[in-house]
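Handout, section B. The chain below has 427 residues.
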Amino acid sequence: MPLTKELMRTYTDILKEELIPAMGCTEPIAIAYAASIISHALGKEPTKLTVGLSGNIIKNVKSVIVPMTGGMHGIDSAICAGVISASPDKRLEVLSALSSADVEKIRIYKESTPIEIYELETENAFEILIEGTYKDSVVSANLAKRHTNVIFVKKDGAFVTDKYVREDDTVEKESTDRSSLNVKDIVEFADTVDLKELTPYLERQLYFNMEIAKKGIEEEWGASIGKTLYKMAGGDLRMLARAYAAAGSDARMSGCELPVCIISGSGNQGITASVPVLIYGEKMGVDKDTLLRALIVSDLITIHQKTGIGCLSAYCGAISAGCGCGCGIAYLNGGKYYEIAHTLVNSIAILSGTICDGAKSSCAAKIAMAVEAGILGYEMMKSGHQFYGGDGIITKGVENTIKNVSRLAQKGMSETDKEIIKIMLGK
């Protein structure tokens, strides 16, 4: 039975909401965005800042290098870069307003400005509460749940929120309901959607994410996981897919200034869901429409898994994206619902439960293994092999297995998440 127009519209809107560009790891960039609101609203660089962050944001910002800062890393660097940028209109590309001449300004500001950073007591995995002062003027801002979701901005006690919420930010405040996502309908959507509206978003995702992957292959970034795999590949398609996906993360985690198209608020997930599909598609010589439809499968299946897990958690999101890319590769090879569902279940069984211990160089290695799990899940299915209900967290039916992963991540790993944060903070 064909999908309803309403469901087709919903799935289209989900992709348009998700596939947005960001420069740098999204958690430090969200902090920079919040800080840029403060300096913009004050009209001056604040002389004092107080910044409250949810534990998961602290975890994801502690070790990653912030773009456009000359190699600075950590929370205070992200705050200072955002203050100097003072360009909240650019949102997750806020640091693109900076130039090389601003690096010294950021350094001086960082050394001379009191910045208090503390962990927020909040039920939200993602939340930022920031306050800046200049003379007698005070500006505060609150972002929660999503990276550009501005809850409020106040200047000297008066709300000025409307100045910092664009008309299309209604997407961020009331995002399209993702509860309708399911594997069967995702495949049907990919088969039948008119690509005209989505093509600019999908092509941008492929272009941005492949460009940063190439950068990671060509240059030394982080631990050079992608470059190491590339040297080992010898033309092997499976290894090349892993290498390029990992290389994109190598560059991104190490402060590369190229933008990435994100998924579920994560550039690493955006890279993982797209780059291996492009590598396979180009090697197979598929036409453009088939490539874009396979990318839709990978993207939406990644989003479907992450919807139940949440934006930030102890469960490594790259695993969900690796499973998603395996499904996209299955689609490239002619797979439909049966083949894609079995690919996904196989992939989930392999690496589920891999921890997220923050954004850093080792994310690239996890991405390489996540892509391997996705591809192995497909190769198992193609060979007539599979994992069955009762094998660990695998349950009969792909949707039931996805629900089990959500339960594992949200309930089972909640204490793990707290302990990871304590370890990383030296508590």
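Note. The CA atoms of residues 21 and 261 lie 4 Å apart. Compare this with the example in section A.
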